[in-house]
TrEMBL record:
<dbReference type="Pfam" id="PF00367">
    <property type="entry name" value="PTS_EIIB"/>
</dbReference>
<feature type="domain" description="PTS EIIC type-1">
    <location>
        <begin position="3"/>
        <end position="418"/>
    </location>
</feature>
<keyword id="KW-0598">Phosphotransferase system</keyword>
<dbReference type="InterPro" id="IPR018113">
    <property type="entry name" value="PTrfase_EIIB_Cys"/>
</dbReference>
<dbReference type="Pfam" id="PF02378">
    <property type="entry name" value="PTS_EIIC"/>
</dbReference>
<dbReference type="GO" id="GO:0009401">
    <property type="term" value="P:phosphoenolpyruvate-dependent sugar phosphotransferase system"/>
</dbReference>
<keyword id="KW-0418">Kinase</keyword>
<dbReference type="GO" id="GO:0008982">
    <property type="term" value="F:protein-N(PI)-phosphohistidine-sugar phosphotransferase activity"/>
</dbReference>
<feature type="transmembrane region" description="Helical">
    <location>
        <begin position="127"/>
        <end position="151"/>
    </location>
</feature>
<keyword id="KW-0812">Transmembrane</keyword>
<feature type="transmembrane region" description="Helical">
    <location>
        <begin position="278"/>
        <end position="297"/>
    </location>
</feature>
<dbReference type="GO" id="GO:0090563">
    <property type="term" value="F:protein-phosphocysteine-sugar phosphotransferase activity"/>
</dbReference>
<feature type="transmembrane region" description="Helical">
    <location>
        <begin position="317"/>
        <end position="342"/>
    </location>
</feature>
<dbReference type="GO" id="GO:0005886">
    <property type="term" value="C:plasma membrane"/>
</dbReference>
<keyword id="KW-1003">Cell membrane</keyword>
<dbReference type="InterPro" id="IPR001996">
    <property type="entry name" value="PTS_IIB_1"/>
</dbReference>
<feature type="transmembrane region" description="Helical">
    <location>
        <begin position="172"/>
        <end position="192"/>
    </location>
</feature>
């Protein structure tokens, strides 16, 4: 049962990344729109203001309709095959649910009268794609996406005799979903108000927990990274009302991410909303890990320092600039689980300190995103210099703590090993040995996708392929057929297993790897 639960969580965490991968693009464009729409920056009456409003109107469509985006993304991500058809069925199903739920509320006299959509704020109902329905936010998309995927995976290949063949396969999936969606449209009308109260209570608890609540949020968000389940921690806070709600110019925005972006376009807001406290988990990527790397360098053997410098500088630069922290972080796991625990605790504590000092920045990624989002917003609204000041303190604390632990515990961190100088990876953490250099050279001559697929046990052993920001996420049938050593020769920095879910770490180039594997497998 435990394995099934963990496996299910892995599948969901993998699928939820599918829509999330697109949102940073929207966010950065909206940040630019916020600049050219701000009269105090471009001047009163500037034509750029109209351009910004025009472009922003199109971009905000995505963030105000996250529910259908999550529905399609999750259904497609969880589908084992025929992903394109699963996505199409999810659109049909989402629209069908909206129509059915609206009709049920109307038939039972539960529709709330309103003049403007903003009048429905706090009533438990909203208008979504023109339908007045119960207000579930992104949770509606999540519930429907999971439901659709489960039915799709079970019935998408069911065929009927020739006379009724047209009703088989994915058409059968939609037919089976219709009664399920009707039931959900009724049941959720009565159940969700109670769930909404529970969510409100949870939000109140988190907010009333103050320092401890944010520290716990930051700790879990960091500590669960090796499992890939950290997506389940930050997603509700960034994209649902668990992370806060704010009305701006008659529109209600849910989640810390949406609230921050909405405030960028409104120069009348003097100080950003406290919901930004859920966006501070990138501080350690810019500052903390740089301090840890400095500790590695200072405690290294003198004869290894020059070589270690060449290894650490690119890794630290990648972490600081774009927020990709592998393989620096996994060195802690290999060398000492205690280091990883201390790292996670300190990350949570410093996030809480930032909130305690009134920081309102967009600080969830690397330095590039930090500059793009926060400089246009201004110092007064985000207090970003405080973030940098606390970050510099974090860098120093990380250096001192890591240096002390490394020396006291005599840890074999990079540069202190008896063998070659290197950063450790997830594969190393699992204790596997890589193949020799001759085998590596032979594999480099082979087709990359073919080598990866064979290392995953062959085409027949692969159930589904997805990716997140840095990892190729694959579900395989037989874990015994996995060849981690060969995967390492394809440019992967590590491999981690959770049940039958395998994560192969490729870093920023993962999209290209995913495309090659999909093409080799013939995935649509």
């Amino acid at each position: 049962m435990k394995d099934k639960i963990v496996n299910g969580m892995q599948i969901f965490a993998r699928s939820i990344v599918t829509p999330i991968l697109f949102l940073p693009i929207v966010g950065i464009l909206l940040a630019i729109v916020g600049v050219i729409s701000n009269p105090s920056i471009v001047g009163e009456g500037s034509p750029l203001i109209n351009v910004g409003e025009f472009v922003g109107g199109g971009l905000w469509t995505f963030l105000t309709n996250l529910s259908i985006i999550f529905c399609v993304g999750i259904a497609m991500g969880m589908a084992k095959e025929k992903k394109a058809e699963a996505a199409l069925v999810s659109v049909f199903s989402f629209l069908f649910f909206l129509g059915a739920n609206h009709a049920w509320l109307s038939l039972t006299g539960k529709l709330i009268n309103y003049k403007q959509v903003s009048d429905l704020a706090g009533t438990g109902q909203t208008v979504l794609l023109g339908f007045q329905v119960i207000d579930m936010g992104v949770f509606l998309g999540m519930i429907l996406g999971i439901t659709i995927a489960l039915v799709h995976n079970k019935f998408c290949n069911k065929e009927f005799p020739e006379a009724v063949a047209i009703y088989g396969n994915t058409k059968l999936v939609f037919l089976i979903l219709i009664p399920i969606l009707l039931i959900l449209a009724i049941v959720l009308s009565y159940v969700w108000p109670t769930v909404a109260l529970a969510i409100k209570a949870l939000t109140t608890l988190i907010n009333s927990s103050g320092f401890f609540g944010i520290a716990l949020y930051g700790f879990l968000n960091r500590f669960l990274i090796p499992t890939g389940l950290h997506h389940l921690i930050y997603t509700p806070f960034l994209y649902s009302d668990i992370g806060g709600s704010l009305m701006i110019n008659g529109k209600t925005y849910l989640g810390a991410y949406n609230i921050f972006l909405a405030q960028l376009t409104d120069p009348s807001i003097k100080v950003f909303d406290p919901s930004a406290k859920f966006l501070q988990f990138g501080m350690v990527k810019i500052f903390g890990l740089a301090g840890a790397a400095l500790a590695f360098y200072k405690t290294a053997k003198p004869e290894n320092k020059e070589k270690l410098k060449g290894i650490l500088i690119p890794a630290v630069a990648t972490s600081m600039l774009v927020g990709i922290t592998e393989p620096l972080e996994f060195t802690f796991l290999f060398v000492s689980p205690l280091l990883w625990l201390v790292h996670s605790i300190m990350d949570g504590l410093f996030e809480a300190v930032a909130v305690l000092f009134g920081v309102r920045t967009f600080g969830s990624d690397g330095l590039i995103n930090f500059v793009v989002y926060n400089l246009p917003a201004g110092i007064g609204r985000t207090r970003w210099p405080i973030y940098i000041g606390i970050g510099l303190v974090q860098l120093g604390v990380y250096y001192l703590v890591f240096k002390t632990l490394i020396q006291k515990l005599k840890l074999k961190t990079p540069g202190r090993e008896d063998s070659e100088v290197k950063l450790f990876t997830k594969k190393d953490y699992k204790g596997k040995k890589s193949k020799d250099s001759k085998q590596i050279e032979e594999n480099e001559k082979d087709d990359l996708a073919a080598v990866i697929v064979e290392a995953l046990g062959g085409k027949d052993n692969i159930e589904s392929v997805d990716n997140c920001f840095t990892r190729l996420r694959v579900k395989i049938t037989d874990l015994d057929k996995l060849d981690e050593a060969t995967l390492k020769t394809t440019g992967a920095s590590g491999v981690i297993k959770n049940g039958n879910n395998v994560q192969v770490i490729y870093g920023p180039k993962v999209n290209g790897v995913r495309n090659k594997v999909d093409k080799y497998l013939g995935n649509n």
